[in-house]
């Protein structure tokens, strides 16, 4: 055994994982937040009226091209933007990241399910990449060093 402490190499490795997680967290948080905000846009303006118009159109499109009933797609669509904004802000601020990352990943799984039902392969692939990033973030979350409300069990 060496008399030199392994702490400097361990510290470098930890800081690299911390940096990697921070980059992933920033990307996923911003992507999720902006995905939610864009749901409120219509003709260059943002409003609740635009949101419900956009989300109703999305729900009807999925129902019309798949086996899913309108009550299911409409309930999901009408909550989607709000959930994306809340989860995006939570990820950026570092609020209970384990559960937030997991729930946001599940939300993206739900989005991909809707796209699978309408046979939108390209959209499924894009969302699949984001789900993969959420999975990697969940693996790296133990290297989180910057949070307002950290998870209690590390």
Strand order of the largest sheet: 1-2
- What's the rounded overall pLDDT mean? 90
State the total count of DSSP E strands. Answer: 2
Residues in helix, %: over 70%
* Rg from Cα: 19 Å
Q: How many alpha or pi helices? A: 5
Q: How does the helix and strand content classify structurally?
A: mainly alpha
Order of helices and strands: HEEHHHH
Could you outline the blueprint of secondary structure elements for this entry?
Elements: H1 7-38, E1 41-42, E2 45-46, H2 48-64, H3 70-93, H4 97-117, H5 121-140
Antiparallel strand pairs: 1-2
Quick overview:
With 154 residues, the protein is mostly helical.
What does this protein structure show overall?
This protein has one domain. It starts with 6 loop residues before the first helix and ends in a 14-residue tail after the last helix. It has helices at residues 7-38, 48-64, 70-93, 97-117, 121-140, and strands spanning 41-42, 45-46. Strand 1 (41-42) and strand 2 form a beta hairpin. Helix 1 (7-38) packs across helix 3 and helix 4 runs antiparallel to helix 5. It has 154 residues and is mainly alpha-helical. The model has no long low-confidence stretch (mean pLDDT 90). The protein has a two-stranded antiparallel sheet.
